[in-house]
Design a protein that fits this description.
This protein has helices at 3-28, 32-55, 61-85, 87-92, 94-115, 124-142, 148-171, 182-191. By secondary structure, it is mainly α.
Length: 192
């Protein structure tokens, strides 16, 4: 493993960890324009760090854990931005958002109980959900009205992801990273 590439990729992830509290400060200070541009950078670096880690073969458990935490913090800050800048959207979609939140918390609690840390599966469906989430949230802050069709697609893909990850927590006895998904776990077990 090339150490420089390893540190570079993890530095991109650490940027998102540092950016999250900065984004929160921007929200609290009502700096909407700066917030939305820095949020784009955070979503862009999320896409870049995973690609670079695979490209330069510098995938590590630490990097996967940092990436999962940074992802969650970025989404959490974006949700705080929605609460502050467009609270009516949450009121209109409270049922679906409650379902998403409940499934997310269930998966996190089960992972903490089973592994003593959050999961970092990085399944294919999780990557697809992250792309939809990023696109929806960026458009949400840059357009005057939310793209509801995109929100519903994003919610459905995210629900599927959270259900799969919850099942993975129940199925996998040891903490693992970069699990492609349930299909590949079943296939791996079948080959054994």
């Amino acid at each position: 493993m090339d150490k420089r590439s390893y540190y570079f990729v993890n530095a991109i992830t650490v940027y998102r960890l540092i950016a999250a509290p900065l984004l929160l400060l921007l929200i609290l200070n009502h700096q909407f324009d700066i917030f939305k541009w820095l949020l784009i950078i955070s979503f862009f670096t999320d896409a870049v760090d995973g690609y670079l880690a695979r490209r330069f073969k510098v995938i590590s458990k630490l990097g996967a854990s940092l990436d999962s935490i940074a992802d969650d913090l970025t989404i959490a800050v974006a949700i705080v931005g929605i609460i502050e800048f467009r609270p009516g959207f949450l009121k209109d979609e409270i049922i679906l958002i409650s379902i998403l939140f409940t499934l997310y918390m269930l998966q996190i609690i089960l992972a903490l109980m089973r592994y003593r840390k959050i999961s970092s599966f990085h399944t294919y469906i999780a990557k697809i959900a992250a792309v939809f989430q990023g696109i929806f949230l960026i458009l949400f802050f840059f357009l005057t009205k939310p793209v509801y069709a995109l929100f519903y697609i994003t919610a459905i893909v995210t629900i599927i992801d959270l259900i799969e990850e919850t099942i993975l927590v129940l199925v996998l006895p040891q903490w693992e990273t970069n699990v492609n998904g349930l299909y590949w776990i079943r296939k791996r077990r079948h080959l054994k």
